[in-house]
Every structure is written in structure tokens, then in C-alpha cells.
């Protein structure tokens, strides 16, 4: 593992993105510099070599989730995969005259899922947004009450991108399948962090993103079940690549990097999880000792190893804490919603009041986080919290 320069901020935002593993970068490099051929140019040797490399990577991605390579459609990332899954399933069903018009999802989903479901309302579909418990989990009984023979698709995120909780995919997919619905999961935050198996959990559609598993940005995948076959309508037209579901020239270096990241995740996932969980517990222990009243959001047990979603006590604000801790890279929530002025909708969905939601930070520990960085981060956060408390108190006194 490489050691970051002394002046580089400590990176604790591994839910937003992960650094590219040096082994992934090494695997990608030849496909930028030596063989830059289009993998669709199979008439010549360089094109065939690129095509073979793409298929090897596709097989590695498939193996990470227990799928067949023929079920993997390569995309630009999980946002595109989610859009293809949800809109593609709905529009194909409508084109076949299906009477199923209900699309069910969860209030804590990623914005791209929520917006995809809401967009379909303009096309005559019925969006249903279900609540979660205070632990962030969807109760299968709540889902069962919402699905019936009008339900076309259920979409539930495998691991939440803010509070890190792990949904019971097998139980939820069983409910969806009992109603005859398609089951989709956004697994961008789950891959490499929990064991995914599309057969075990009876998943029809599953979205992935390479940059969440120490791979490159700009590449992802959509798993599409072949037996029984799930039919989708593509979002746009083109040359018919990726079984006609996602036309466009494949970026071979990115695909190769995705494949290498998937191989590493599959091979080293248990070791990564154990190491990361140890660093998380170390960080939480030090923070709790320095910040009395610190609260962890989300189910304490059913969560990925590297996630800490923390509400700081007292009259403080997460943005102020971040500003007082320039040595750290941390966030208040989803990177895709970071421009929002309002507090996290995920935190509001699990019952946090606005004040508490505004005093909450998301910490994401990763493969390359060291014990020394954890100790320094705990000290910096505690100091920043105390500084913001003092500032808030003095400002209130002056007013």
C-alpha cells in the first residue's frame, strides 16, 4: 500500500469515490499506451485483442456477483445502469400492453433512482415511495403491503450510500417475486463490501459502478437476468453494442480496470472488510471518548464495515466542522446531493430533526486508510467540533 504525502488531506470519503488501486492502474496502462484499438474492430489483431480483454473483464465483473458474463451490460456507471433498469423495464412493459404500472422504491434511495421513478409518472406509471424504519431498513411487511398484481418493478438499494445499512435483499426480492414484479437493486455501495449473489437473492437487475471498488470513474455495469429473461427498452439508439441495450464504443482501458478491480474485490474482500472494520471501530472509539453524546445513525450491526454516519452533539453544524478541519476529506452526505442547501433527505427519512441532520457527517473508511490516519482524524474532528461549539456560543452571546 502506498503512503500518502504528509501534506495531503486524510481521505475519509470512500462512499463518494475510492482511489484507483495501483494494481488496477497498472492493468489499464497498456490499453491506453500500447493497444488503443476499438474493441469492436475485430477485423484486425489489435481490435481482437481489445475485444478479448473486454470479455475477460466482463467475466470478472460477472463473477463478483455470481452472474454469467452474458448477463453483464457495460455502462458509464451506476446512474446510467439505474436509469436503464427502471425506465427500460417500464417502457418495455408499456410497449407490450402490460397493465402493471406501479413502480415501488424507498425514500432513502439514491437520487438517480428516486428521480427515475418520479419521471415515469409523466408516462402514466404510479410511483410508490416507501418509508424506512429509524434504523434505515425497509421492513419486508411494509413492502408486502405496497405490492400487488399491478406492480411492475421494485427497486431497493443494497447498501445505503449515506448511512451504510445493508438491506435484506433475499427477503425483499421474495416479496416482489410473490407479486410477480421485477426486482432491481442499486449495488454500487455493496460490491466489494458485502457478498453479492444474484442467484441466491433472486435479483433480476443489479447496478454497479467501478469507482466504488477502487476502479476507474466512467465505467459501470447493469446485470440483466437471462433466465427467466428480463426485457428492457434501451434509453438511446446507436450501433447496437451491449446486446442493443447500451450502444456506443466501449472504453477498453476503463473496462479492463473495472475487471481488475472486481477480481481484487472478489479475492480480497473478506480481508478488506476485517481490516476496515477494525479501523472504523478504532475511529469510533476515539471519537466517542472525545465527543460525549456522539450518535451513530443507522442500524449498528447491519451496516458495511467502513461507514460511520455521525451526529455531533451541541449547537453545531457539520459544514462548520468541515471548515474547521481542512486536514480531512469528509462529507455531509451523498456527493450527488452535496450542492443541496437542505439537510440530507436520507437522514430526515430515518427521523432526524433538521438540527440533528445539519450536525451530521459521513465518514467512509477504505482499503488504504491507515491506523495513523484514523488517530489523526479523530483528534482533528474532536478539535473542530469543540471549536465550532465555542464559535456558536460566542456568536449567540454577542447577539
Residue stretches low in confidence (pLDDT < 50, at least 5 long) are: 394-399
* CATH topology descriptor of the largest domain: Aspartate Aminotransferase, domain 2
State which percent range the strand residues make up. 5-15%
Number of self-contained structural domains: 2
Q: Number of helical segments?
A: 11
The helicity comes to 40-55%
The end-to-end span amounts to 51 Å
What's the CATH superfamily of the largest domain, by name?
Type I PLP-dependent aspartate aminotransferase-like (Major domain)
Architecture per CATH nomenclature, i.e. the level-2 architecture of the largest domain: 3-Layer(aba) Sandwich
Shape: globular
Main sheet: strands, sense, barrel: 7 strands, mixed
How many individual β-strands? 12
Mean pLDDT across every amino acid position: 94
Structural class: alpha/beta
Largest sheet strand order: 2-8-7-6-5-3-4
What radius of gyration results from the CA coordinates?
22 Å
The helix/strand series, from N terminus to C terminus, equals EHHEHEHEHEHEEEHEEHEHHEH
EC number: 2.8.1.7
Organism: Roseomonas elaeocarpi
Pfam families: Aminotran_5
Catalytic activity: (sulfur carrier)-H + L-cysteine = (sulfur carrier)-SH + L-alanine
